[in-house]
């Protein structure tokens, strides 16, 4: 057994609540989102977690979620690395649009392809494959070495950046990863072997 990797998707954001495509738009958490993030911290505290380092994106909803978790653990000053490699998928021209309005404009099938397919890009944006192309190298070269040294690492990020990472960790095919749903503020705990393979995975709901 090597180290531990904990993934947490940010709590509900203001645009999650309004059913808007968010992507790289820097929106805040809702009151519920703050509570979800704090609850994730309490869950991890109850399990005796203490982190060696934390990683998050450059977007405030992920950063605030990360901070809530660390505050709950009494680790408010832990070294926290922020990098756009962990940002949410860029939805391009869809960002800021209501998802129902987008369906009315382009059709249910087209919007579904943009949202859930692996390699189809929305106009001016990224596919999940594109998101993975920045998440995977960052994880392999920057984050994974800490885990393989036996450290306990927190990543607070976004639905699609975490889906891309889970795809690699779980060895999912493109048609499998599109079915993966990640709840807001729900810790996902991985124990890794020394060879970087997954020893165990637990979703703490």
From TrEMBL:
Active site: 10 (tele-phosphohistidine intermediate), 88 (proton donor/acceptor)
Keyword NADP tagged: no
GO molecular function, one term: phosphoglycerate mutase activity
Keyword Chaperone: no
Annotated site residue numbers, Transition state stabilizer: 158
Cross-referenced SUPFAM superfamilies: Phosphoglycerate mutase-like
Family as reported in the entry's similarity comment: Belongs to the phosphoglycerate mutase family. BPG-dependent PGAM subfamily.
Record's subunit section: Homodimer.
Protein name (database record): 2,3-bisphosphoglycerate-dependent phosphoglycerate mutase
Organism: Nitratireductor mangrovi
């Amino acid at each position: 057994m090597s180290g531990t990797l904990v993934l947490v998707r940010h709590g509900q954001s203001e645009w999650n609540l309004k059913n808007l495509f968010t992507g790289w738009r820097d929106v805040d958490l809702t009151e519920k989102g703050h509570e979800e993030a704090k609850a994730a911290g309490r869950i991890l505290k109850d399990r005796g977690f203490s982190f060696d380092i934390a990683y998050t994106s450059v977007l405030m909803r992920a950063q605030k979620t990360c901070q809530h978790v660390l505050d709950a653990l009494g680790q408010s000053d832990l070294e926290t690395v922020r990098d756009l490699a962990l940002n949410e998928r860029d939805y391009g021209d869809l960002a800021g649009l209501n998802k129902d309005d987008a369906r009315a404009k382009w059709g249910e099938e087209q919007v579904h392809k943009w949202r859930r397919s692996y390699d189809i890009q929305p106009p001016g944006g990224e596919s999940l494959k594109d998101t993975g192309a920045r998440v995977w190298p960052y994880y392999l070269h920057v984050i994974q070495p800490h885990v393989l040294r036996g450290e306990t690492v927190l990543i607070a990020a976004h639905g699609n950046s975490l889906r891309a990472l889970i795809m690699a960790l779980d060895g999912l095919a493109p048609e499998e990863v599109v079915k993966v749903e990640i709840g807001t503020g729900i810790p996902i705990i991985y124990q890794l072997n020394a060879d970087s393979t997954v020893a165990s995975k637990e979703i703490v709901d």
